[in-house]
């Protein structure tokens, strides 16, 4: 029997399309408009063409911020993905421990980004912060305000504390969906713990890991609030990521044209890298 399609169903999607157009497409067109113009105030605009894009792509400040972003995202993925898998593997699958662990894992995700930054800003202070004061009492010279390495460690640990739970919950959802028959067959065959993980658990978690990697990459690459609250992009420019540099250009210097051009380049870089991640991680499924 030939299938019939009811195109009227698209009307159900129309409100979503209108909402996306209002919240995404229209602001994007506004940014594109600003990126090819210049203004001297009084709402007077002048055509600038691709000058702002040329300035951005030839700016050492832009490429340095991009390198910081890439390094930060690489560190975050290298820590949070294995750590999230490890925690999910060791979480209970039955009993009262399941809801307790799930609630504890979800708690960091419920805290707003600016509150997370404030918590770690106070937590790491040498004079009143528990972490900073304890390290100082142990004779460790820790000060995220003046030392770039300490600032990086603080921002990385803060992000790991805040977002590893997301990876844990996604991996745990993949693990609990594995039928017991797989484990019973592995037990009969005498498979080791590593073999069970390598040939049963990891393949079954592949799709949720893809989601986890993409989400954590995009979030870490667009991070702004937490490091801005903790370090303000300092000391110096050591933690000035692209998002912080963009806000400084748009709000601090009120250079709307360069800020718009930078935001478009920033957006395209995120799209490109996310597509590369998705293509690489799904290529094995296509081969199989």
Automatic annotation (TrEMBL):
Cellular component terms (Gene Ontology): plasma membrane
Record-linked Gene3D superfamilies: MetI-like
Keywords: Membrane, Transmembrane, Transmembrane helix, Transport
Transmembrane recorded as keyword: yes
UniProt keyword annotation of Cytoplasm present: no
Transmembrane segments: 70-89, 96-115, 160-183, 208-225, 256-278
Membrane topology label: Multi-pass membrane protein
SUPFAM superfamilies, alphabetized: MetI-like
Subcellular location: Cell membrane
GO biological process: transmembrane transport
All copies of domain ABC transmembrane type-1, residue ranges: 66-277
Recorded family membership: Belongs to the binding-protein-dependent transport system permease family.
Protein name: Binding-protein-dependent transport system inner membrane component family protein 41
Organism: Neorhizobium galegae bv. officinalis
Taxonomic lineage from the root: Bacteria, Pseudomonadati, Pseudomonadota, Alphaproteobacteria, Hyphomicrobiales
